[in-house]
Amino acid sequence: MTPETLGALAGLLVIETAERVSGEYTGKLLADLGAQVIKVERPGGAPTRRMAPLQGGESALFAYLNTNKQSVVLDLDLPAERAMLDRLMTRAHALIDDHQVDWTERRNLTPTQVAKTHPRIVHTLVTPFGQSAPASLQQCRSINVINAGGWAYHSPSETPQGKPPLKGAGRFLSDYEAGIDAALCTMASLLRLRRTGQGQSIDISEVEVQLNRIDCVLDRMLAGDADPSDTRTAYDMGGPGTSFACADGHVFLIMTTQAHWQALCILMGNPAWASAFRNDWLEFDCTAANVAAFRAEFSAWVAEQSKLPITEAAQKAGVAMVPVHTAVDLPRHEQFSHRGFFQNAEHPAFGAVAYPGACYRMSATPVRVRTPAPSLGADQREAGV
C-alpha cells in the first residue's frame, strides 16, 4: 500500500481535542482507517508528548497514539483561538474529547454547547465514569478505572498476601478498551450523519466498558458460585496452573481436567513422581498440598525446556500451555510476521520503527502507518488556523 491509497474513512474530517490515552487512541483508530484527524494541542503540546517511555526526549507512547494525524496548536482559553476551533468544527464530521466536565464547561465544549453551535457534528466524549459522574470521580487515572471496573480485583492472580492488587494487563488497558468502543460508536454515528444529516453526542464511561468486558471469574462471583474474599488465589479458575520459569523465559499453564493431566504426563514422558497423583485429582483431589507438590515437580522439569518447542508440543498434545512473550519476542513471532502485523515506518526521532498494526485485514482499504506522529503544530497552515 502506498501513502496515496485511500482508507475506508477517507473524506471524513475529525477534530481531536483529547489529551489522554483513551481519547487519543479513539482518534488513532479513526486516523489509521483513513480519516483526516486534526489534533488540537495546547501551547507546549499534549501531556502525552512527555509521558514515558522516552527516547531522545520523544515519547514512544505519543508516537504510537498519534500516527496518521495532523497537529495544530490552539490556546482554547483565548477567545480568538477558541473561535479558530469553531471554524475547524464547522467543516468537521466528528469531535473527539476526553476531558472532565469542568474543562469542557470553561471552554464551551459541553455536549449541549457543541450540539447547539454544531448540530451536524458527532461529538464523542470518553471519561472515566461518564458525563453524569460526581465531581469527585471526574478526575481519575487508569488504575482507578481498572479497579473500579473489577478487573484488577483478580487479575493477575497469585499476588502475595498483604500486597495491593496489580494493575493487570498494561498501564492503560482501560483506556485502550474504552477507545475501541468510542471509535465504534463514532463510526456508527458517522454513518447516521451521512444518512440523516444529524449529529449526536456520545458519552463513553470507561468503567462501564470494563463492566461490559466482564470475564468468567467475575461472572462466577456475581452468580454466587464464588465468594469474593481477600484471598487472591480464590479468583483462579482452579487447578495448579500458573507461570513457570523455563530455560529461556516463562510458560503459562492452565490445567483443570483429567484429559489435561494425562496429556501432560505423556508430554513429560510419564515421570515416576506423577504416579503419586490420582488420574482425576484435578477434579476431585485438587488440594493445596497436591497443587504445591505438582508445582514443585513440574517446575523442575519445565526449567530445562525451551518455551517455544515445549509449548508447541504441549498444544498439539492437548495441554493448555503457552509461551509468555516479552516485547522483544513479539516482532519476531512467526504468526505476527505471517500476518504483517508489525509495520515498518520511519520516525523522525526514532528512525526505523516496527509499529503495532491493526488486528484486522481489509482487502480494499488495508490499514497502514502512512505518517508518523506529527511534530507540534506541524499542520497549522494546512489546517487554516
Describe, in plain words, how this protein is organized in 3D.
The longest helix is centred in the middle third of the chain and has 24 residues, at 173-196. The strands form four sheets. This protein has a six-stranded parallel sheet, sandwiched between helices. Strand 1 (13-16), helix 1 and strand 2 form a beta-alpha-beta unit. The chain is built from 16 helices and 13 strands. Helix 1 packs across helix 8. It has two domains: 13-212 and 337-383, Rossmann fold; 239-326, formyl-coa transferase, domain 3 (2-Layer Sandwich), CATH 3.30.1540.10. It is of the alpha/beta class. It has helices spanning 21-32, 60-65, 79-90, 101-106, 111-117, 142-148, 151-154, 173-196, 206-212, 216-222, 258-267, 281-284, 288-302, 307-317, 334-339, 380-383; strands at 13-16, 36-41, 54-55, 58-59, 69-73, 94-97, 122-127, 200-205, 243-246, 249-254, 320-324, 342-347, 351-356.
Cα gyration radius (Å) = 25 Å
Helix content: 25-40%
Per DSSP E runs of 2 or more residues, the count of β-strands stands at: 13
Biggest sheet record: 6 strands, parallel
For the record, what is the CATH homologous superfamily label of the largest domain? Crotonobetainyl-coa:carnitine coa-transferase, domain 1
Residue share in β-strands = 15-25%
CATH architecture of the largest domain: 3-Layer(aba) Sandwich
Which structural class matches the secondary elements? alpha/beta
Distance between the termini: 31 Å
The number of helical runs is 16
Query: Which CATH class of the largest domain?
Result: Alpha Beta
- Mean of residue pLDDT? 90
Q: List low-confidence stretches.
A: none
Order of helices and strands: EHEEEHEHEHHEHHHEHHEEHHHHEHEEH
